[in-house]
Amino acid sequence: MGVRKAKAAETEAALKAAARREFAERGYLNTKITDITAAAGRATGSFYEHFASKEDLLRALLADMHAQAGDQLASGDHPPHDLTDPLQLRAHIQVAWNVMRENRSVMAAQFESVLAAGPASGALWDRLTEDTEMFRRHLEYLGDSDRPLPGDPALVAAAMGGMMSMLAYALTPGDTRYPAAEIVETISRLLLYGLTGPPALRPADGAGR
User: What angle do CA 23, 25, 30 make, to 5 degrees?
Assistant: First the structure.
């Protein structure tokens, strides 16, 4: 990599890191481009050498999130996994949870952005379905294998992502009420068994009546 490209990459990384900090402190809507460039120690004009707008920067941060999740699951185009297998489901939930928690400021910025667009825009649904594409592909794989699903794969995937993202947003950094391992296990069991619990944990017929 040449010196010019290295400096450009350094500036882009600095702008992204500053945006994360500013979004966490000020909120997405209240953060100006000048806030980001000042926090990054860069000239305002340098921002537009990398991003067309604040919205374009947010899209880049979201793309980084998706790449991070893909890397942790071996690759961004790994073959569909069997999410009815407890170990595989838990592994996916673990990765998704870690990425959401590590990128909480980006998730909060996304919420602000789509909510500001208004419910009629459909932006929230579009964002949710895009963010849960990996879950959807795995669910479609199960459906194509004649495995029963609780509903349309896109809807089920969106429901899974919506539940997890709101939970990750609600549990603020430093919250010690629930350890990460307990959260991942609880989400995995809820998705795998629903409210009835696994067969081994169900009371015998007639018990407790």
Answer: 60
- 131-156 pLDDT tens trace: 898 899 999 999 888 888 899 999 99
Tell me if 9 sits within 8 A of 1, measured CB to CB.
yes
Instruction: Give the integer Cα–Cα distance in Å for 169 and 159.
Output: 15
CATH 1.10.443.10 fits 1-51, yes or no: no
Start-to-end CA distance of the chain, whole Å, equals: 72
**How many CA atoms, within 13 angstroms, populate the side-chain half-sphere of residue 71?**
8
Fold annotation for 54-198: Tetracycline Repressor; domain 2 (1.10.357)
How much is the pTM?
0.81
User: If you ran DSSP here, which 8-state letter would residue 61 be given?
Assistant: H
Angle, CA 34 vertex, CA 31 and CA 40 arms, to 5°: 95
Domain borders along the chain are 1-51, 54-198
